[in-house]
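Q: Got a minute? One more chain.
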Amino acid sequence: MNGKSAATCLWMQRRLQTGPVDGGGRATDISPMTLNLLKLCVGADSVEDHKRWVEHRLAAQKAAGVAQEQLHTTRMVPKRAQELLDGGSLYWVIKGNIQARQRLLDIRPFVDGSGISRCHLVLEPVLHETAWAPRRPFQGWRYLDPDDAPPDLSSDDTGGDLPAELRRELAGLGLL
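A: Always. Here it is, folded:
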């Protein structure tokens, strides 16, 4: 299939998913498609390590008597916020692999004390482990199409009940 045929096929597939389009090829009268974010989890060595950090931050908020919510601050505000908040998640890359996700609850732009625009991503404080998917390092965050997002793991899945280090080894060998 040549490039033009593949693009036409992809366009038709999107049109069937999204409904009617206007003369400019833009979708009309539809709800947005869900979209996800992808972010490096800097400083965490494992999903368990990240879970402990989330629990620590929530406990500190409780002790301080402030609302308990997990916020992740970014410099850039996602322009596709409506699609992200339509059931999207933040997928975490830990040690070179997507390993977990957290549901996005809200996106709150703000200006910090230095006058710099920033954004709070409000996350559900529950980490859902996912099948591992390798990712190269990058800065900031990236949009992640639902078709490219790895599935959630459960103990019934292959490797879901294996220790993290063994899953890392097997994933590195392409066996998971």
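A: Confidence is low (pLDDT under 50) at residues 1-31.
Q: Perfect, thanks.
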